[in-house]
Structures
1.
Amino acid sequence: MASIDQELVLLTCGDRPVRRFPFHGSRPAARLGRVPGVLAHVPAVALPARPGKDDVDPVLKEREPRRVIVHGDDADLASVLVRLLRRDLLHVEVAFVPAVRRSAAALAWELPRDAAALALDGPARPTPLIRDDAGGVLVGRGVLRDVEGEAYCDNSLVLRGRVRRLVAVPGPGGVSALPGKGVRAATGRALQIGSTGARVEVEGVPHPRPAPRWTWYRHTADWLLVRP
């Protein structure tokens, strides 16, 4: 039977000194601070906020974990999921333990307040993976501001004209546009927006430039999220 060291790894994300690789073993989570006590025995690696290829890939290559536990915010979770997608590792289970009080991802997937306990031995369920055409993923909340144009969710017209914002969230049915002033609610496989140049924010992180076109769409394969 595989040991917990082989099966689990905790990625604790935030602005702190980073453990560099080659990977020569991990520290107990208890030594990193601010990690829930129930996870204190799990081998842990400290990563920067919104970790990238050079941060996440060495851990995945060295450890080949069955389950990764992400302790951070929604943008951190999205960053780790992008690396699993790019490395064709969507079979790896992902547990999320928010390090912030309000998490759109936790709300979208109905994670309990005690997400740390669930992360250890909760079930990993196939979950729609929502991608965007800028190379990212949507795990909690995306917002387009100052939209002037049209948006469709599959064949349903979501908006036409000018609106202050359009909010998109993932869910069991795919991607949803939430109802708002000038915006009709809809859920489907793809949400496509064409505009004069909207400001985009995904998981609280602004896109670097206005986007005349933006699409969120369901990937052909699911990811495995630990959730009730």
2.
Amino acid sequence: MPDSKTTPTGRATGRATTRAAAPATAPTARRSEATRAAILDAARERFASDGYERSTIRAIAKDAGIDPSMVMRYYGNKEGLFAAAVTIDLKMSELPAVPRDRIGATLVAHFLTLWEENEQLTALLRVGTTNAAGAERMQDIFRDQMLPVARAACPDPEQVTARAALAATQMLGLALTRYVLRMPPVTALTRDELVAWLGPTLQRYLTAPHSAWPEG
């Protein structure tokens, strides 16, 4: 029989049923969050130990103690899971103190080191070219971590966002052609040559005076 009460007028109410069912929502939500957290923890460890290419949904699910279908349910595929799990520090705080007129060359050298030493960063770039979640994650990383650098170098506060984005086009373009697509003319360039070619471009993007920019 339904769990209901009858009023003096004979009208049934579902108040008792509502009270009994409502508390079940919170435990369900907590279980869902706990499952997500377990998946992300297992994914971070697996990606760190095996790298992106060798890590599998099945292995990550096993580490998390759940069925692989649960990973797919929450994150869709390995690309979506990687984008959600990965945390990348561009180490902008570790940039050496350099004169403002050397910031372009310094950034190029800094990013070359990052791309060559951080497999996850290159993997995220690969994911970002084909996966919306990966692209959004890469955008967040560069926006949040490049903006302070651009703000410190930019002569016009209103242009900080545009200048940071333009600098990112150079760094991401270099990474894509050198470390993902491996275009021979780009991979053949030495580190010093890349700094010499791209340093002035980043320098102009970040520090060129307002008069050097076209009027809107």
3.
Amino acid sequence: MRFQEKSTFPSGAARVLLPFAALLQDISRVLEDVPGIIEVDGHTDDVPISGSRYASNWDLSAVRASSVAKVLLSDSGLELQRLVVRGFADTRPLADNRSAEGRARNRRVEIAIDLGESDAPRGTIGFRELSVG
């Protein structure tokens, strides 16, 4: 699942917005019954951070992924050891950072399920872009 920055976090911040938190809580209840490791990955564009509480895009991407993981774990039966949280900064862009549209597409959080650590049949699970709000 891929969530664009719009309607998920305030610009340059890692606090999960309420509509996104509600969606994440619904997702967490579904994930309780899905086997495997849940990977939460944060991504940014390549514009350096200035005047922020985060020292770099690495920090922002990691803290955003961590914020999503915390919401997934709150009020759910998900086991902590099933989650992996990673921040990739701008190292895995989806689009060219030379345009505003490309930069917006690159600012995202992704949740993936690795079935390799489960007894479930292996398969390919693609990413699906979701809108919030």
